[in-house]
Amino acid sequence: MDRIGYGDVVVILAEMGTIPLLDELSIIAAIATVLAVILSRLRLPAVAGLLLAGAVLGPYGAGAVHSVEAIEVLSELGVVLLLFTIGLEFSLARLRNIFAQVALGGLLQLGLTFLATFGVALAVGLTTEEAVVMGFVFGLSSTAIVLRGLTERRELDAPHGRFIVGTLILQDLAVVPMVLIVPVLGAGAGGEGGGVEEIGIALGKAALFVALTLGGARLIVPPILKWVDRSGGRDIFLLAVLGLCIGTAFLTSLAGLSLALGAFLGGMLIAESPYGHRALNDVMPLRDLFMSLFFVSLGMLFEPQAILDAPLVTLLLLLAFMLLKGFLATIAALVMRFPARVAWLAGVGLAQFGEFGFILAKVAEDAGAISNELMRPVLAAGILSMFLTPIFMRYAPHVTAGERLLAPLERLLGVRAIDTEDDKGVAHAGHIIIVGFGMAARLLIHTLRELGEKYVVLELDPERVRAADAMGEPVFYADATSPEALGHAYVADARAMVVLISDSGGSQRIVEAARVAAPKLPIFVRTKYWRERRDLLEHHAEGDEVGAPIEVVAEEIEGGVVVADHVLRALGVGSEEARQRVDSALATLIKR
Length: 592
Hints:
Largest sheet: 6 strands, parallel
CATH architecture of the largest domain: Up-down Bundle
Radius of gyration: 27 Å
Strand order of the largest sheet: 3-2-1-4-5-6
């Protein structure tokens, strides 16, 4: 019997129909890579390139990809893995803190968007059922695109990041009643559907099912991971983590919840165990791969003909997503007493169409609650808003016009800031201004207090401000990029400023505002990465005689210095020689 060669295997696979999908995946990978690289060279987000690749290759574009449904199935894994990794960076305790802070803001964002859309829809002649569907569709934002942007910019822990994450979680929860209500609307329009009692029972079952799933998984997950860690290697551990991720997502989907929300909850459960960081590192490469497919598949839904058929309507709908919806999200953040900068960034982050909008639109069409002709321009405008969102999120932190326009509204809504605080406890001269109240800031505060130095802390997280107030610390709710806030902190008479926040763009703007208000003020800035340090020093020369001296500390460099010093000492190198060798290595790296 002749041996089967590699060529024979290829022929067999081709006859089985496997190769066409592989061909399409290779085309997707090639085109998406080229477009993403081109857009990145133009300083545009890679996500925009992936969406564009989908639009070019999809059935409404060149038609190079025919297995759209298969691609969509693979891409769904990307959303599941994205929410799973986000969950790995949280914990149940942390979620409770965030939910308490932004639940009302999320409900307010959904409520305001729904009411505004519902009213406009009725005004232009839509039926009540159609207006309700439009309100639901407009209320939801893109979890995948927004969280991807926040993760890339390392802004999940920023105040606007926490508000956005909490709002997106609330939106995912709201999808459940929305999906149950839409068929009822179809029943009112002549279709078949259930009643209010059926919706209540379904919601109760979903809540009970999720509670049982989370409770059981919390007891089962840690022992399973411990057993796998002892018995298998890295590949087996990764397989177990993926099994827990997809399994939790599947179980919650049985209760009518989204796969993505179930994956998020599964990630939080593993985050509670000692294996959270290891699971995160192992899953990240897979997440990035499937997320790329997800963004390409979204682009494939873009239908240019819908724009050509109704260009003015599509443009107005796009403006409604980007401007009206963003403004209402901003209002929700301001009502929650966030300052103008946080509200502005939150509005930009939530101003787009959401993935679950496609699901709701399909359910509504099947139920007869709305027509396909009515939804076509909405979906086209929605995909355009998803394409624009990564671009707007990148440049929004550098745009100050939005914050200035919001300033009167900020004062009208009574957002609490340092200028509304009692001057008691605020040092007027010779003090240190600290921006941020994290662990590094607390360490510095403890040192300054022992030396008898005066200090004032500016912080945008209201939870941290309340905690500091309970400790009797002079921590004030203020945006350090605002000249008014810096003035109330008496920046012109301060001895120094220390910036200890995770938002590199915010740090840049704080330094710029402080330079204007106090040109001779020494400024110390902490950044996470070395490239962020270089960006800061490009604008503000270290030790500049004209302006104030600025020192930028990069965590990855300082951490590497400490680690290298410990390793050399463990190898028997004397402390003085170790210090000299580390300094020499650091100098070499800096020159490069």
